[in-house]
Amino acid sequence: SAEKVEFGAGLPGYVFGEKGKPGIVVLQEWWGITDEVKAQAESISKEGFRALIPDIYKGKLGVDMEEAGHLMSNLDFPAAVEEIKAA
Fold first, then answer.
1. Beta strands in the chain (DSSP E)
2. pTM for this prediction
3. How many other C-beta atoms lie within 10 A of the C-beta of residue 19?
């Protein structure tokens, strides 16, 4: 099951799997962290990994293509890369 966490300095996200297992960073789709992304992370954790999902949209979800495109186009990519590294 998912554990809601905070990575680094205020980056929300989710963790699946046991501490001490090899870690895999799961990146969200352009929609944000959807139930499908969480299901994929849970599946990865069941294979013996700790799956980390940094929420680079900070809790926002694209409910349609226009909003998802807006979220992606307004993303500060250099900052997002640094946030992902923090996870």
1. 3-7, 11-16, 23-25, 50-54
2. 0.88
3. 7
What are the tens digits of pLDDT across the range 53-77? Answer: 999 999 999 999 999 999 999 999 9
Closest listed residue to residue 9, CA positions, set 83, 60, 85, 81: 83
Distance CA 55, CA 38 (A): 11
Q: Are strands 23-25 and 11-16 parallel, antiparallel or unpaired?
A: unpaired
Helix (H, G, I), strand (E, B) or coil at 5: strand
Distance CA 5, CA 11 (A): 8
Determine the 3-state secondary structure of 52 from DSSP: strand
